[in-house]
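Is this the right way to post structure tokens for a design question? Let me know if I should format differently. Anyway, here goes:
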């Protein structure tokens, strides 16, 4: 099976690329700003119609995992036009090409399509994004549903996992803040998060592909519409820092817990967007996840 992974140089894309490749599929990954000549991933501007069409014509994928996106809410607010072009415009283009080539699409969406006021959220809960990033991801969902109702929309929460640089993950980034005890930091202790490992999300993507696309290329169209995956550990960013301090055996006095809403972040974020994984569970998918502390106990000492 041929599988195309967009945004393959990112934290999630790399794990999807690896996970699918490890089970023997023919995988092509795309990147743009982080693509290097002769590197593992092909440089493609997904907002360029001709480049995207040439990619599909050359590779002719059976399945596509569309990870490419501007995922940082603060960056989205700084460049709303660029973010909409990638998060919505490129999503429309990729979905149209998937439909034209008969490829199964997994569009990676976000828990930020919800306002965070009434968790847990089911797949049919009403979306109500409260920041521009969430709006672009929801608009991407609407585009996918409009163009190809047989595609999958996979909503996921904040991610952590193997990173080339800490800034790839809003969670991994906290480790360095905990380590630098000389620098006072204010840390959110209001908003609830469900940090989820990119390796686990990649497994879910692989399992969806295997179930949806048969060896002869035939499609199981019951694998379509909205799915949600998330770990179930409930943590504020301050509580994550407490865990990291324990692993590092360093004091945490330099980190101040902020217990008032919207006193730290430049962009408003939802309070609690817990995602229900009921559909995945009911259809027999593996929704297990690595425990947050255990994973970092293995990762932090070597980084």
């Amino acid at each position: 099976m041929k599988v195309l992974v967009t945004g393959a140089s990112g934290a999630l894309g790399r794990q999807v690329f690896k996970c699918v490749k490890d089970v023997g599929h023919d995988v092509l990954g795309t990147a743009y700003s982080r693509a290097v000549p002769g590197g593992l991933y092909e440089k493609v501007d997904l907002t360029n119609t001709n480049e995207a069409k040439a990619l599909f014509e050359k590779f002719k994928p059976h399945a596509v995992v569309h990870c490419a996106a501007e995922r940082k809410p603060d960056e989205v607010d700084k460049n709303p036009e660029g973010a909409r072009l990638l998060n919505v415009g490129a999503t429309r283009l990729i979905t149209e090409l998937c439909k034209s080539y008969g490829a199964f699409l997994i569009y990676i969406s976000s828990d930020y399509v919800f306002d965070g006021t009434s968790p847990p959220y089911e797949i049919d809960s009403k979306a109500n994004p409260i920041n521009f990033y969430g709006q672009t991801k929801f608009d991407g969902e609407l585009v996918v549903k409009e163009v190809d109702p047989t595609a999958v929309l996979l909503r996921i929460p904040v991610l952590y996992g193997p990173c080339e640089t800490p800034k790839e993950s809003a969670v991994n980034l906290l480790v360095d803040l905990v380590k630098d005890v000389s620098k006072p930091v204010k840390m959110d202790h209001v908003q609830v998060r469900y940090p989820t490992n990119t390796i686990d999300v990649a497994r879910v993507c692989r399992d969806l592909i295997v179930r949806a696309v048969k060896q002869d290329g035939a499609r199981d169209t019951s694998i379509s519409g909205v799915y949600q995956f998330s770990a179930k550990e409930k943590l504020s960013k301050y509580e994550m820092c407490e865990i990291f301090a324990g692993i590092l055996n360093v004091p945490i006095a330099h980190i101040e817990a902020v217990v008032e809403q919207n006193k730290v972040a430049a962009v408003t974020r939802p309070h609690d967007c817990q995602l229900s994984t009921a559909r995945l569970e009911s259809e027999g998918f593996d929704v297990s996840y690595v425990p947050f502390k255990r994973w970092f106990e293995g990762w932090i000492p070597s980084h």
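Format looks fine. Someone answered above. Worth noting: The radius of gyration is 19 Å. The longest strand covers residues 104-110.
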